[in-house]
Specification:
The complex is a heterodimer of chains A (385) and B (451). Chain A is mainly alpha-helical. Chain A has 15 helices and no strands. Chain A has two domains: 127 residues, no CATH class; 236 residues, MetI-like fold (Orthogonal Bundle), CATH 1.10.3720.10. Chain B has 451 residues and is α+β, with helices and mostly antiparallel strands. Chain B folds into two domains: 260 residues, MetI-like fold; 157 residues, Jelly Rolls, CATH 2.60.120. In chain B, helix 7 crosses helix 13. Classes of the chains: A mainly alpha (385), B alpha+beta (451).
Amino acid sequence: MTNQEVLLTDSTEVDFESIEASSRKARSETIIRLLRYTGLRLLALFLTVAAGVYITVLVANMGGYVDEIRRGQIREGIILEKSVDQQFMQLDQEERNRIIAQEIEIEERQLGLDQPFVIRSFRYLTNALTLNLGFSEQLSSDSGSRRVSNIILERLPSTLVLFGTANLILFFISLFSGLSLSRSYGSFMDKLVLAMAPTSSAPGWFYGLFLILIFAGLLSFLPFGGMVDAPPPDNPFDYGLSLLKHMILPVTATLISSIFLTIYNWRTFFLIYSSEDYVDMAKAKGLTDRMIERRYILRPTMPNIVTSFALMLIVLWTGAIILETVFNWPGAGQLYFAAIGVYDIPVILANTVVYAYLLALTVFLLDFIYALVDPRVRVGEGSKN
Amino acid sequence: MKAIIDSFQQIRRYPSAMIGLTLIGILLLVSIITPIVIPYNEAVRLWRGGDDIWAENPRNAAPVWQNWFRNSKQPETIVFDSTEGDGNKTIETLSESTQEVRFIYEFDYSYDDFPPELILFANATFDEKQPHVEMKWYKPNGDEIRAGEFSPGASSSFRFSQDERLQRRLKRSTGIENVDQALFDDPGQEGIQVLKGPYRLEVTALLFEPESDIDITFVSYGLVHGIAGTDHKRRDLSIALLWGTPIAMAFGLLAALVTSITTMSIAAAGVWFGGWLDAFIQRLTEVNSIIPLLPILIMVGTFYSRSIWLMLGLVIAFSIFGIAIKNYRAIFLQVRELPYIDAAKAYGASNSRIIFRYLIPRILPVLIPGLVTTVPGFVFLEASLAVLGLGDPVLPTWGKLIQDANSNGALFNGFYYWIMEPAILLMIAGLAFAMVGFALDRIFNPRLREL
């Protein structure tokens, strides 16, 4: 994260024109450096993802502890299955034990339980990293598929719809409110936002409880949870309307839990940058407020805004597990929780891998967005660590 | 150091911070007093206890203070226990082997609603012949009702509403199906209305052995109970609310304190020694940022142990290499270049002396607000785990109350107090630390104060 350091330590004035000229001269050089940097960065991120996923493999299997539980389950299942078989029950004791042992062995081999844990842990890791997610052990998708990728792909859209909407609204409200508050700082609204900022210490699900209590329990004009009415409407328009109705509460809960702090933070960035000399200079030149905001305030603050937004995305993604559980929203977070509940390791791992890749992608894109929005940071330079 | 104390004194200028400090003070006070008044083992015993402990509490009763805001007063629980001298127990010997024991319970019923349950608990001692108990119910208007009879064992209970003969009799005379309502109904008024005034229950027990004895407890259950209400297992919520305080405080404060200080020391050491150590710390932080903390906690909770102290340890272990390390590192990189560090090096200060006496004190202004603002996050993390059903198996916490309430449909059934009480306490704890943290942030970072 050298880029952040550059940003934090470098507060000297920047001569944009000279950078532009030199970059034109060294364009081909830059491209080579860019490629090398990209390669190294991707490799580093990939290794990071691998390490993170392997730790998850270890925890998810509890160093082989889960296997014991699973063996027990298999044994119990087979004995139960056999005990209702009339023909089987007529065989003598020895024969019965032999058949049961055989069935258990077949079942265990099918699930790969006959190999030592270390070997299996690396197999889990390589499969996970190559997104070869395999088949689930317990859960199945609504369409009946046991393929983990199908199960996750079925759930992912609901999560993306919910959190995508919430984050878009959050981003734009925070951006525009932040800008407008930075213009009128010290006003009543500004003080109100400052006073409300501590409310962001509580997570979204917490406000969700209150919202359910008020709007579903007391006033009963919004649903308690779920994604659409049951049974789902056939007409796509009605379906959309029903979806919207179910989204109001979870989206509001997410917004309440982060909006005041975000507005406050962003307004502070804007204020810091609008007290720079070049902004006064632009004002003296007679530029319009809108132009000053766009060119002289928004541009230099963009890196900070982008970072804080990306970090927030990560936190919200983790929060999805519990928000979806509270609102009974059939998304990836709820799937995660369900998978853990039935010890379905392939599904747990797949969810973690998708999460790790999304995180790595966020970090990677962040580097490039930095370079795009902040001319002081140049990709590939000073990235020794 | 003096500068830091001066900064703390500035906190008086922030009313929100003063409110926050007061709230934190109250919470800490409760955290200290609760374990003294209700020791740990007692709390666990009470919370895990079943009907043996909580039989005399009503189910899902709202807190008593709800009556202050209503026009119609809801009944409170009335308990008469003859072992504690209630009921004016009189014993009359009828023959050599037969005794008659009488209990008279008199009480004034002035509530606007009917009790949800009426139960008589009988504890009898006898060798072979069971005693026989008869009850008579006197209404304020003089009506006398034969309220049933039964033969108690060593420990048995008589539920008025489940006595079919009593129900038939009352239905014939008053036309009301519900026994509890019929016993308190005012026949002079239209519909089902409570007749207020003095009620009397006479219990006569016949004992058929000279050594035999009997004690009777009569409970008229309330719709409101205690300052916090009760849950579906008749447990008094105030125990969980009280014990939730020290747990939330301990979890939040310990996690915040240990994490902040360790993180800062690691960042300082990394910056000071540089080289592979710094690189290693950086990589570890990056790996850690990709490990999903909540899912790992959920997995450990499901597969292994749900002990709150194990969770606390894991939370600390995973939070040490958090994003904060990057922030501290950026600041330490600047501090490292300052002249006074060179001076310290020149006079031969050791590495550890430079790290702990020169580098770390310099960034306390950043650390202290950061520490305070991370407390709510940890408090809510514990609650989140509990809400997912992974709370500590023995201890009552605020999060577990919310989970209990949620899984028993408190919102759906309208038991709002059940969810609101722990939620509001969580809110208070979270807001208090956040408000103080915000004010400290502005005091220690003067650049923010100007804005």
